[in-house]
Design goal:
Largest sheet: 7 strands, parallel
Distance between the termini: 36 Å
Shape: globular
Order of helices and strands: EHEHEHEHHEHEHHHE
Number of helices: 9
Strand content: 5-15%
Number of strands: 7
Length: 255
């Protein structure tokens, strides 16, 4: 219950899905969690539910594609909680699923603005606070599709490949400051994003079974599978872990 005691964590896209599970598990492990999202209702409800349990949590509306908004929000978090130790760059969108030659510039840029620039902005403006704290942990949510290809959603795949190498570069840049940077690579996890993707393809339950069968373990993962990985990377247990890829994919990429 105290793996993250006395730490302050910022979780982007923290209101639903993987971000929500991560916020819950980190709060239960003793961290004060700042939930950043553009989903007002869900974010307020999650922060209220956690504080009602005696845990430390607060919500901020933040569009990670806006640098000014990111800087202002991170400064506000530090003013509220006193410091910053952990940044979880989880906010992301899937974008369009079209062949590359049919994608418009606007469709491409929308995905990169959230999935890539969002990670860049949050990292850029978290670093000064992490340095003041004497170090910390940055956890970037990439994907199995930052490791292997797939014949769909080209902007998403490109963005997650970028996040993977951004993580390694920043791990090298900020190691002297005792700031660890790692990426998590989930397989298909049952979240609103995946459910929406399957709904766009047809029958959701049949799609869930078919996608689950792509994983050697035979099923889709759940948000806690990823949240516990994030807790590990944020904790002192991972003190010698940086520049690494934590693959949590039911064996999808083991082939």
């Amino acid at each position: 219950m105290n793996r993250l005691a006395n730490k302050v964590a910022v979780i982007t896209g923290g209101a639903v899905g993987l971000g929500k599970a991560t916020a819950e598990r980190m709060a239960e492990e003793g961290a004060a969690v700042a939930i950043l999202d553009v989903r007002d209702e869900e974010g307020v409800a999650l922060a209220a539910a956690l504080t009602a349990r005696g845990l430390k949590a607060a919500w901020w509306r933040c569009n990670v594609a806006s640098e000014a908004e990111v800087k202002r929000t991170l400064d506000d978090v530090v003013a509220h909680f006193g410091k910053l130790d952990i940044l979880v760059n989880n906010a992301g969108i899937a974008g369009v699923s079209k062949p590359t030659h049919e994608i418009t510039e606007a469709e491409w840029d929308l995905v990169q603005s959230v999935n890539v620039k969002g990670v860049f902005f949050c990292t850029k403006h978290a670093i000064p606070h992490l340095k003041v704290a004497g170090g910390g942990s940055i956890i970037n949510l990439s994907s199995i599709y930052g490791l292997v290809g797939g014949a769909d959603v080209p902007p998403y795949h490109a963005s997650k490949g970028a996040v993977r190498l951004m993580s390694k570069t920043d791990a090298l840049l900020y190691a002297p400051d005792h700031i660890r940077v790692n990426s998590i690579h989930p397989g298909f996890i049952w979240t609103p994003m995946v459910e929406g993707h399957l709904a766009s393809q047809g029958d959701v339950e049949e799609g869930r079974k078919a996608v689950g069968a792509l994983h050697p373990l035979g099923h889709i993962g759940v948000p806690d599978d990823i949240a516990w990985g994030a807790v590990y990377l944020a904790s002192d247990e991972a003190g010698f872990v940086t520049g690494s890829e934590l693959v949590i994919d039911g064996g999808y990429t083991a082939r």
